[in-house]
TrEMBL record:
UniProt cross-references to Gene3D superfamilies, sorted A to Z: MoaB/Mog-like domain, MoeA, C-terminal, domain IV, Molybdopterin biosynthesis moea protein, domain 2, Molybdopterin biosynthesis moea protein, domain 3
Family per record: Belongs to the MoeA family.
Protein name: Molybdopterin molybdenumtransferase
Organism of derivation: Mobilicoccus caccae
InterPro entries recorded: MoaB/Mog-like_dom_sf, MoaB/Mog_dom, MoeA-like, MoeA_C_domain_IV, MoeA_C_domain_IV_sf, MoeA_linker/N, MoeA_linker/N_sf
Amino acid sequence: MIGVHEHLARILSTVRVAAPTRRALDGAQGCVLAEDLRSRVSLPGFDNSAMDGYAVLASDVERAGNPYPTRLPVEGDIAAGDTTRRRLRPGTTFRIMTGAPVPEGADAVVPVEQTDAGVERVTIHEGVPHGRHIRPQGEDVGEGQIVLRAGTRLGPRQLALAAAVGHGDALVIPLPRVVVVSTGDELIDPGQVPGFGQVVDSNGPMLAAAARDLGVVASRVGGVADDPETVSRVLRQQLARADAIVTTGGVSMGAYDAVKAVLSELGTVQFDRVAMQPGKPQGFGTLGEDSVPVFTLPGNPVSSLVSFEVFVAPALRRMAGRPAFESAPVVARAEQGWTSPSSKTQFARVVVTSSDSEPLRVRLAGGQGSHVLGSLADAHGLAIVAPEVTEVKPGDEVLVLGLDGTTPGDHAVAATAGEASGMPWFGATAVAAAGSPS
Ligand SMILES: Nc1nc2c(c(=O)[nH]1)N[C@H]1C(S)=C(S)[C@@H](COP(=O)(O)OP(=O)(O)OC[C@H]3O[C@@H](n4cnc5c(N)ncnc54)[C@H](O)[C@@H]3O)O[C@H]1N2
Ligand code: MOO
């Protein structure tokens, strides 16, 4: 038997970051940048108004107030999108909208609320100092400045910035395309009612969803018969469209374990018994001319999910140009005791709870058998119990790896502190403390 770290090390030293390719921003979400992006413009691109109001020379309105307001003639309107260059003559004003270019000669904007909102002439009740409510050109980003570094993952905010500074595309690491292949004569498609001896393919939808949750592209082939010729044909077909293949089932000691039979002859896949529970029978290697990584996961549903989280997810992140582990396990305290197999790393499915003042706490999410799907759906994380530990006692500290890309405790904080007390972070105090927009 080999250790979890040995199997993972072999995987991570084999998989490669995909070759960069240029993608339109709309198709680059979730990709990692393979180049530094420089701003092609300055942001804002021109001095513009932060308020709906009147562009003025501040000195013209400095005396405006009760009981003596200032009256100015309005030379016209400037709306956002107005591309005419205008000049403000001292002693006059333009009505201006938020985002519209400030006319040359104006050095402040009086918000409409401080006026009588006049169209031809405006009465200003309260003046503004020089520069007020003008967003100066280049205040945010300077032209030529590097705004996003190679290695940055493009999420909504990064895509917004890339677009705003003049880019329509970017050189990125493409998202790996994963194909999940479920093998087993007993499998039928989701939505069908199983007859005696039949089992619905739940691993396929689960692992494809887990891969998408991770931010890669996933598809699946369900119910592949436990017959070497069929498995071999399906794998060869999928090689053409896959950057990684994940199979489930057919890798233990059974007489009909076709995946093992086929891949023992093809490619570099090596089958090992990994000292972990669940997830003992594992295989990994590459296949085809392009050395596509192939992960053969055990068929038991919990075993396949744990194997995905521990071995496949880090590899896919690495292929996508991301760190293999983006969030470290957190420490939590066991609420109850449980046993763990000797000389194996145990990945126990746990429910995580938290309260404001105490450390995170965990309890087992129901039965721990490798086939137990009901409680798998309730779990928030996997408690990692070291091989030398055979018993976790109440109060012991354990490390917990989040499931579905979450950090353990996040959901618990939301559920306990949030819903129970009316989402205090959206409360009146929090909003007032955040200040007013400009
Ligand atoms: N003699 C031994 N038998 C077994 C050993 C062993 O060491 N010696 N290891 C056990 C362990 S541990 C595991 S894990 C399983 C792994 O088995 P396979 O990978 O060969 O998987 P199958 O036999 O095909 O299926 C196991 C189990 O999972 C169900 N299954 C399979 N695919 C799916 C799917 N897509 N969706 C839902 N459920 C699925 C299948 O019906 C079986 O019940 O081997 C032990 N045996
Ligand atoms: O590894 Mo099996 O996954 O122990 O049930």
